[in-house]
Request: fold
Amino acid sequence: MAHAYTPGLKVTASTKIAKERRLPLKGEVMVANGQKVKGDTIVARTALPGNVATLNVGQLLGVLASDVPEFMLKKPGESIKKGEEIAQTKGFLGIFKSNVQSPISGTVESVSPITGQVILREPPLPVEVDAYIDGEVVEVFANEGVRVKTTGSLIQGIFGFGGECRGTIKLLAASPDEVLEAKMLTPDLKGCVVVGGSLVTAEAIQRGAELGIRGMVVGGIEDSSIKQVLGYDIGVAITGAEAIGLTVVVTEGFGRMPMAPRTFELLSELDGQRASINGATQIRAGVIRPEIIVPREVTGKERSKGSLEEGLRVGMQIRIIREPHFGGIGTVVGLPVDLEEIETESKVRILEVELAGKERIRLPRANVEIIEA
Reply:
């Protein structure tokens, strides 16, 4: 049967996870197909060309462009150091010489007898890509990277910032509605991914960065806290490149929002285990969700309570993603077949949801997303 597309959020104790790890440009792959890797294993490396500096040596020496090659002390391909003389005139009777010093360390790339310009290039910048997750290399992309697969727990969030990192999960909140505050953070949490409840304060994020905490997972965050931490309003483009010292993953939304019971429950089970997390978020085309991944073997086959592939069905757990019930978690109890008219006078497919407090509501199917458990 056809069904309306419903976006999904994964919160699952055991699933297969695959990650492509690619270089920004061609380089060398360091691992082989079938090799077991850890999250910090370097799987590929390359070097980005260094920055370029251009000098008008002809003008600086006061000579014709065609004469510049003659006055160069350093030829193309030779190494240079910052402040080193790279060109010099003969002067008059060996005195009154003019010279040009290099503004950078690197190499001389080219000398033009037409323009008198000399191009210098800084040393190449090494780039290494790690596996990010513990698993097995299942595919090698020649000179580009690999695909790594693993089995484990996967929790996706609504929003996040900060890049990829790894750390040991440490549950700090006693309940899903507890606020994660700076006073709860201690030096022994260095290298950990701490789990709070309904909210994290700006002071807690800043304190966490000072202590060397790797990540924070919470239900909600205030817009003002993000601006206080980053120093600017975050836009709608992709996040993940913020250099704040730690990664924040928000599982529910903005404001004080208790973490979904299923999410809090799973994170409680994972307390003490090593996780890979990434705060990168993109809400436009090509959606990217922040995530927490814990590679682990789960005994027995856990039955899925909800799959994105099969669409909505009665009994599934969903999250409401539009007002007036934004952030609400509930269970699908009815999927009427007939279209119904809503406030905008449009006719849409709707569903019936039972919220945590046993309240039942009817809303458009487009207003929810499946929580894949």
Summary: The first strand starts at residue 8 and ends at 22. The CA atoms of residues 51 and 122 lie 5 Å apart.
